[in-house]
Amino acid sequence: MNELKEITLSKYRFEQAQRCLRSSKLLFDDGDFRGAANRSYYAIYNAIRSIFALDKVEFKRHSGNISYFRKEYIQTGIFDKVFSQIVGDAFEIRSDSDYDDYVIIDKSEVDEQVKNAEVFCDTVKKYLEERYCDEK
């Protein structure tokens, strides 16, 4: 894959992240906290994958993406350690809300997750903009 294709894929994935983030806000405002938890997690997940496109890295499992992100981007100091917790919490809440029929999703917890997803995406956007300039 050449650099132009990598950048194009990265931008596409980040656009997906932004769509998920917008959806999470709409769902939250509509009182669909399970849906908001799901979409905010996928905003984070797609933002991570937008970074990986530039590195030519792909994982099939969510856990592989999260582990690689933590190892290569958190432990190396590229992103602050707080983002490791944000990713982990979002994954856990999304998993619980998607797969546990009887879990009660707390409005304040999801509100925090949606806000964290926004911070995460804003931070990734800045990182990607720098990388796009470096790739050219």
Mean pLDDT reading: 93
Instruction: Detail the poorly predicted runs.
Output: none
Provide the β-strand percentage band.
under 5%
Radius of gyration: 15 Å
Structural category is mainly alpha
Number of extended strands = 0
Helical stretch tally: 5
> What's the helical proportion of residues?
over 70%
* Largest pleated sheet: none
Give the termini separation.
15 Å
The shape is: globular
Succession of helices and strands? HHHHH
Give a written overview of the molecule.
The protein is mostly helical and 136 residues long. 81% of the residues lie in helices and 0% in strands. It has 5 helices and no strands. It has helices spanning 3-29, 33-55, 62-74, 82-99, 107-135. The protein is globular, with a radius of gyration of 15 Å.
Give a quick rundown of the structure.
The protein is an all-alpha fold.
Keywords summarizing the entry:
single chain, 136 residues, mainly alpha
SSE layout:
Blueprint: H1 3-29, H2 33-55, H3 62-74, H4 82-99, H5 107-135
Helix pairs in contact: 1-2, 1-5, 2-4, 2-5, 3-4, 4-5
